[in-house]
Structure formats: C-alpha cells, structure tokens
Amino acid sequence: MTSADLVAIVSVWRHGREVVSTLHSLDLARRRNRGFRRIVVTCPAELSDQVRDAVARSRVGDIAVHAVAGDPTPMALRADAVAVCDAEFFAFVDAGDLVGERWLDAAQAALVSCRRRVIRPELIITFGRRSGSWPQREWHGDVSTARLLASFDPWAGVLAVSRDVLSEVPLPRTATSNLAARMWNAALIQASIPQETMKRSVAFVRVWDDQPTWESASGPVLAQSALLTNREIAAAKVPRHPPRKRVPTVLARIARVARSSVRPWRDAAARCATRRRAARRFAPEVLSDWRSQNAIEPLLPYPRPMVGEWYEKWGAPWPTRLAREADAYWNLLKALPPRVDYLFFAPWVRTGGGDRVLSAYLSAVERLDEGASVALVTTEDIASTRLDSLPPRVAVVQLRDELMAGVPRQALVDRILPQLIAQLAPHTIHAFNSTVALDIFESYGRALAPRSNLYISTFAIDRTPDGERTSVLFLRSPDFLEPVTRVLTDSDAFVQQMVQEQGYDPAAFIVQRQVIASSSRSRHEPARFDRARPLRMLWAGRFDVPKRLDVLARVATELRGRGLPVEVVFCGEEVMGDPTLGATLASLAKSGAERRPAYAAFAELPLADFDVVIMTSEWEGLPLVMLEAMGSGIPVIAPLVGGVGEVLNDETGYPIVRFDDVGAYVEATESILTDYAAARARASRARALILGEFSSASFDARLCSVHGYLR
Which of 119, 191, 401, 566 has its CA 20 to 30 A from that of 640? Predict the structure, then answer.
C-alpha cells in the first residue's frame, strides 16, 4: 500500500453492510483533511465477499480491503491492518461507528506535534440500542482512572495513535474484543502513555445490545497484564464506596407519602430545568457534526433542541457497583503477597474437621517447599474463629470484608477472583469445600489450567434438615472436572459414591489420608466398672444435624434404664440448622448425661478421664474425632457411615451397622464393661494403624506423589 500521513482502519466483524455509513462518515472527514487520504477496511476472510460488495455499493473511492484468515478478534483485525500499512499515524473506527468531521484533522495535528500519546474524541454519542453521551477521560497519571481498568474500560474504541506507540505497546491479538481493548488500555497506562482528547470533537458509537459498551468490557481479564498486578496502584488510598444504607420501614413509608405529595410540583420544575439545560448540553460544533452524520446514518437521532432532555448521561461518576468491584480487586491484590505459589480457598476456618485437614495441607506445603509463598482466601460471610491455628507464614485474606462492603458474591465469582487468579498465576490452586472457588473452576477452569494446577478437596455428602442431599460436586456440568488436576479426598467410600452415583471418572480422585496427632494417655486403668467408678463415655462434635445428638440421647436413656454403670459426657459447639436441638438437650439432661463446654481441639480435652468414645453420626466423611480417639488409644464405638469402615472394624473398635440402632450401641457398651482388656487391645491396634497411615510423614510422602501439586 502507498504511504499516507494518516490511515483510517475500519474493523468489520459482524455483517458487512454496517461499514457503508462508516465509510461515508470518513469520506466527509477526509474532504476536510488533506493529510488523511487512505481508508483500509479489515475483516475476517469469511466476510470478505460481503465487505467488498458493501464497499462497492458505498461508492466511496480509494478504499482497500484487507482480509484476515482464521477467526481473528477485532483487535487482531486492527493489528493486521497496521502491519500492511506504511503510514505513521492511524485512526481506528469500528464498522457502524461514525466520526465527526473535525476530530481526525485535530487528532493528526496533535500526533505530529507529539507522537507519544493517544488522541480520542472529547465526546462519544452512542446510538442504536442505547442513546447516551459519554465524555472521554484524559489520563496523565491519575491513579483513580487506572484503578477502573480492573473492573471495566472507561474509553470507547475510537482513537488515533502513532506507529511509535503501537511499536511500544502492540495491539493484543488474543482475547475477546472488549477485553482486548481493555487490556491494551491497561498496557498504555502501565507504559505511562498519555490519553488526550480534542476539544469540541465528537464520534458516534453504535451500541448493538442493551448494555453500555463498558458493561460488555467488565468481564475478567485472564491474560497477563502488568497493570493489574501493579502494587503502587493497589496501595493508593482512595475513598471507599459505602454500601447503600437501608431506610427503616416506617421512615420509608413517610418518605413515599411525602414524595407523592410534592411529585407533581417537583416534576414540573424538573421539566423546566431540563429544557433549559438541554438546549446548551451539547456544544455547537458537536451539534453541527451530529446533523451531518444523521444525513449519513438515520439510526443516529437527529439533534433537535430537546435531544439533550432524553439522552442518557454516561461516564463519571461511574456506577457505584463497577467502582466498588474495582476497589475490591485492588484491595485483594494489596492483601496478598506479590508472589503466590500456592493459593488455597476455604469457606472459613473454624472448628470443623475440614478446617483441620486444610491446616494439614498448609503445614505440609511449608515443610516440603521451603520458601514458597502460601495464601488462603476464605470465601463466605462468616467469621473465621481459628485463624490462629494456621501456620504463621500463610497470608490470609477474608472475602467477608468485601461482602460486607456491598460487593456481590456473583461479582467475586464472575469477574474479580478469576481475574486475580489469572494475574497471580499460582503454581497450585486448591479449593476446600468452597463453592465460590468451584464456581470459578467451572466457569474459567480451562483458561486458568494452562498456568495453574487446580485441585479440589471435599469429604462427604451432606443433607439439609429437610433431607436434601448436598455436595459441592453436585449440580455441576458433565465436563466440570476436565481442567481439574485431581480431587483429593480422605476416603475410598466417598470416591466410590461419586463414581457410582454421579458418574465421575475414578482416575480424577486421589485418597489422601489425614494427619492425626497421636498421643499416649497415662492413666490408671480400673479393675472393673461399678457405681463408684463408672465407665466414662465421651461424645464430642458439633451439635449439628449429621452428628445426630438425638441418637446419643436415646442411647443414654437406655443405658440409664438398664442400670448400667456408665457416665455419659458430651461437649461441642452449637450450630444453626437443627430445629430439634432444644428437645434433644432436654432429653440428655433428663438421662443424666453431663454437658461440658465447647472445645477448640480434641487433644485439649482431658482424654485420660475417658474410657470410651462414642459417635452417632448419620453421615460422615472420615471423622477426625474418631481418628484422634483411636490415635490416643481410646476404644471407639461408631456407626459404619462414610469412610468409617476403612479404619474401624471388629479388630480396631466397635462398629455399629446402623447409625440409629440404639440396641447395638448398648450391646457394644456392655461388651466393654464386661471385658475392658479386650477393648484396650482393640484400641492398641487402632493406634498402631493411625501411627502408620495417618502420620505427617505418610501425608508428605503421598502429597509428593500427587502429580503437579508441589513446585
């Protein structure tokens, strides 16, 4: 192609016919500007015939059509057109958009005087599905504009630029159209290239759907962007966007009545004020360009005097939702280490068995990969009460802070966290029962997997109080686990259940036994149990639906009814969700069972005081209380639910076939009362099993064998 001072590049990727109005608009502009002669229309090869026909029908001369093979993005279309042009300056316009006659002339003069900048129109008028005015921001280093790019793109795609800038910051050829433009604008800011506008200039952008253009650019940027990991921007102090306060109901009713009373007068005054403002909302130069462009594209409304009365106002101040999401991204980036090698997700860190397993993985990573940077993100709006139990070098970020500040959960799943993960690109991402993390894996796993190894840990199928079965692996797409490296669980029973009931590939799972701290109790063994020295039975766990504390109440009542020398002690933490808990606690009290305070860790209980541990769960994974009791050498009575049967049998304890078989619990207790030496022998074999299979050394060895987990 021949050289020209400025080439206008028109990108076509929709239909082809929409390019006609754009060509007429550019033809008007080049009649005014002698330095602008060349127009290049770039399109995918599959649209080239339609585009050539449309160019011919436009009867606009001196047009070159450049077809790009494959399935190029709109930004790649621009990049390919630049590569075949030998001009020094370029103006980019999408097919369907229009430019004011004055803008290209002023933009070219500005670029000649200083090549290292981007020139935009001062105002964008949108038309089509949405009509609005969108002032374009200038940028000369302010942090507030840079921060917005974490959430959306505050600029339209109409711009002029020099080849020098395009060489320094190349146009990205990948990613979707709007995200590619956002990535490029982020790269421009990272390179400190100013963004400037030409006064009283305008361009007209067609909106093809019901969203403002920046809304379609508000998805996560999954390609690497230096700006989106810029710690100086993250550290900048900006005012927090507070969540909207809810007005009390009575005050809200009073306000509604008051508004309805004054509304007619207020609306009349507002109409008068709007008409006065509408007449001077747009500069005369803008209205002049507007009229000439309406003659080319009737879809662009004619600029009658009252057009400013109904045109939307877009731009700053931006919607609070988008600004709040941008703040959330930078807050999370600031809270995380500059480099994250291992990123863990969990709902919270409290007293559950899953939290203990999480801590075991965190500790193992620190042991096996010294110097690694490890971070944990808690994802639910529930306070974590046991963060002090985690290894001290783990950086902890709680999404609870952002949720309470008004950031929607869905925004975290759809945009903020996927983008954050993609920018940090940890070696390993491990989700522990976190639906937030698993939702991200489901939507963006294929985009994240090339740079990060994805792992999931979940341990049991739960039930709601009304009987519905639940699991973080339920209700997923059939190919959900394809980008996931492995699911790490603690029992074969759970794997078999997922394979048989959900059809998952067994190769997707690895059984990784937990770490159980084993201790030897020093205690005086009684010769026999009687009223003076009863058998002390311990039940420990959450007062939650699956633990079936009501079954313990029935067992305690039966033991007392038979006059057996047994003292029942139960302790744990109350949780919401069991509507019958009050009646159960009353029944336990009536049976003579002793309630003790909640405990932080099983090992902190006075284990030497107890002769047997009982469990009554309806469903479990591989329960920690049982394993820790076995590791402490205490005989265990437990139902064969979940993975219990993988470690508990007639040689290592007292298994109960049905969780609610009260008679079986009582018979096991009588057996222990009759022959406690046999009970101690079973407990000894159980402790040996725990020492062998559930030690830190065994855990580390298995983790080292998991493909891709460690760096």
Answer: 566
* Residue 690 near residue 516, CB atoms below 8 Å: yes
**CATH class entry, domain 535-694:** alpha beta
Segments in 490-547 forming alpha helices (H): 492-502
| Confidence at residue 81, expressed as pLDDT on a 0 to 100 scale | 96
pLDDT at residue 3, as a whole number: 45
3-state secondary structure 652-709: CCEEECCCCCHHHHHHHHHHHHHCHHHHHHHHHHHHHHHHHHCCHHHHHHHHHHCCCC
User: So what's the pLDDT on residue 71?
Assistant: 87
Residue 231 neighbours by CB under 8 Å, 6+ apart: 333, 334, 338
pLDDT value for 278: 46
Cβ-in-10-Å burial (0-12, 13-18, 19+) of 144 comes to: middle
Same-fold call for 6-235 versus 336-511: no
Sign of CA dihedral 343, 348, 351, 353: negative
pLDDT of residue 239: 66
**By three-state DSSP, how is residue 532 classified?**
coil
- The token duo for 186 is 């982020």
What is the residue type of 72? P
Residue 654: the pLDDT is: 98
**Rounded Cα gap, residues 569 and 536, in angstroms:** 7
**Domain 336-511 is of which CATH architecture?**
3-Layer(aba) Sandwich (3.40)
What share of residues in the chain are helix, strand, coil (percent, to 5)? 45, 20, 40
Of all residues in the chain, what percent carry a pLDDT higher than 90? 77
> CB-hemisphere CA count at 13 Å for 37?
10
Q: Which residue's structure tokens are 């959330």?
A: 328
Per-residue pLDDT, 527 = 79
Parse the chain into domains and list their residue ranges: 6-235, 336-511, 535-694
pLDDT of residue 466: 77
- Sign of the C-alpha dihedral computed for residues 338, 343, 347 and 351 taken in this order: negative
Residue 574's beta-bridge partner residues?
543
The residues with which 195 forms a beta bridge, in sequence order, are 118, 139
CB 411 within 8 A of CB 241: no
Q: What is the pLDDT of residues 431-480, one digit of tens each?
A: 999 999 999 999 999 999 999 999 999 998 888 777 888 899 999 999 99
**Is residue 619 within 8 Å of 542, Cβ to Cβ?**
no
Backbone angles phi, psi at 159, to 5 degrees: -165, 165
CB-CB contact of 308 with 223 (8 Å): no
Rounded Cα distance between 354 and 348, Å, is 10
The span from the CA of 401 to the CA of 623, in Å, is 31
Tokens representing residue 65 in the block: 């059509």
Q: How far apart are CA 598 and CA 596, in angstroms?
A: 7
Q: Which residues of the chain have pLDDT under 70?
A: 1-4, 34-35, 175-177, 239-280, 521-522, 576-577
Q: What is the pLDDT of residue 261?
A: 63
Q: Do the beta carbons of residue 538 and residue 572 sit within 8 Å?
A: no
Provide CB contacts within 8 A for 46, sequence distance 6+: none
CA distances from 109 to 71, 104, 157, 161, 286 (A): 35, 9, 20, 11, 19
Measure the CA dihedral 94/100/106/112, to 10°. Answer: 20
CA 513 to mean position of chain CA atoms: 29
Q: Which two tokens stand for residue 34?
A: 């002698």
